[in-house]
Amino acid sequence: MSYTERIFEKVIKENPNEPEFHQAVIETLRPAAKVIDGNKLYEELAILERITEADRQIKFRVSWRDDKGSVRVNKGYRVQFNNALGPYKGGLRFHPSVNIGVIKFLGFEQIFKNALTGMPIGGAKGGSDFDPKGKSDFEVMSFCQSFITELFRHIGAQTDVPAGDIGVGAREIGFLYGQYKRLKNVHEGVLTGKGLELDGLPGRKEATGYGLVYFTEEMLLANGKNFSNKRVSISGAGNVAIYAAEKSIDMGASVVTMSDSNGWIYAPKGIDLSIIKDIKEVKNLRIHEYVKFDAQAKYFQGRFDWSVPCDIAMPCATQNEILLNDAKNLIKNQCFAIAEGANMPTDLASIKLFLENGTLFAPAKAANAGGVSASALEMSQNSMKMKWEFAYVEETLKGIMKRIFAKIAATSEEFGEPKNYVMGANIHSFRNVSESMISQGVI
Ligand code: NDP
Ligand code: 2IT
Description:
Blueprint: H1 3-14, H2 19-29, H3 33-36, H4 40-44, H5 47-51, E1 56-65, E2 71-82, E3 88-94, H6 100-117, E4 123-128, H7 137-151, E5 160-163, H8 170-184, H9 204-222, E6 231-235, H10 239-250, E7 254-259, E8 263-266, H11 273-282, E9 298-301, E10 312-315, H12 324-332, E11 337-339, H13 348-357, E12 360-362, H14 364-367, H15 370-383, H16 390-414, H17 421-439
Parallel strand pairs: 3-4, 3-5, 6-7, 6-10, 10-11, 11-12
Antiparallel strand pairs: 1-2, 2-4, 7-8, 8-9
Bound molecules: NADPH dihydro-nicotinamide-adenine-dinucleotide phosphate and (2Z)-2-iminopentanedioic acid.
């Protein structure tokens, strides 16, 4: 049995009940097996044993009071996975589905995503099973203050820099930042995704969605296609989905679907994003409200199954939202490109099917790296005590996404499968991280 396959068995055995983590390890290392299994040094130095074992896993209790004065208790996590390339960096997710396996999958992915950005950042992820939905601002603040009162001792601008993810946006980051500053008495770039009224980066909010579209455009252009007049099917209606939709529309496409965890909308002539922004960003309502304002649109309750005609699909909600039947729906409807905005939205069987079918496939660790790239710009902005302009950030982001695509495409080419961007992304990032680990000795 090969080194990589033995490691998969070991990871599965030693991390029981963590299916998302197993999936992330296989999804990353199997496409890189060609370089790993062909290089004995990796095995001699136990690179895979080390890379799949987090540097540190922090789990803590978060007690807080709700508006009625009742005491509530949640679980908090931070997994500092690997800092070979720089300080630990990665988001915080607040969602009832969060557990240690989910945070480990996200932290593991983050190591390789961050390596692709070319910026000096290691990989981490954190979060809580706290559900911000239906909570007052005061309750969210109370929770965030308690969460950071434990986490503050483990993070810092040179150590570990958290940011947002599902359920964590500028409001939550502001509350976390305020309490951190109070505890440490330093104003430093310890969190990214801060509001513009704090030391936030103009363009961070838009960066993941815009970056996804910039990356996808590069992939389309390299294959003789573009966004113009294409139908884009998007899932989710949060931070990533909204700004992926905005940039797709800017590029001349129409967005025909969006969703939330209750259901999805289909607007064959294109969604009016100003209505979505008003519903989601201003009024904080459910997506079914959309059909009240757009007569051509239909609402379907329940899970989105990717069953409507589209040219490009962008899953932007959560993990495993494209399963085999969904992939078959997309192929049947002649969708020619998938670009992952969410982390690990496509399961292993569906990725395999897309690649066999010749569907262009932009893997998350490359395609959604715009968010963390902008976070790294925010770190540099904060450490220099500067404020970058939105236009500068947008241009820089565009350059970063283009470079990521070029590096991946060159690597896929080097290994004889020029259209296999999954292989290109995983080999390229694995090589970066492992070379850096090797030069730092056995630690
Ligand atoms: P948000 O919380 O802003 O939005 C998440 C969206 O996805 C909401 O519409 C939400 O619906 C929906 N959603 C979440 N969980 C589920 C679920 N289990 N089933 C169905 N729908 C669900 O998060 P983001 O937009 O920030 O994150 C979306 C994805 O992008 C995640 O996978 C995240 O890890 C990834 N990502 C985020 C980055 C960032 O910078 N924010 C960077 C890179 C990747 P509802 O409101 O009903 O919960
Ligand atoms: O998955 C991700 O890359 C994020 N949630 C953003 C991480 C960051 O540090 O900006």
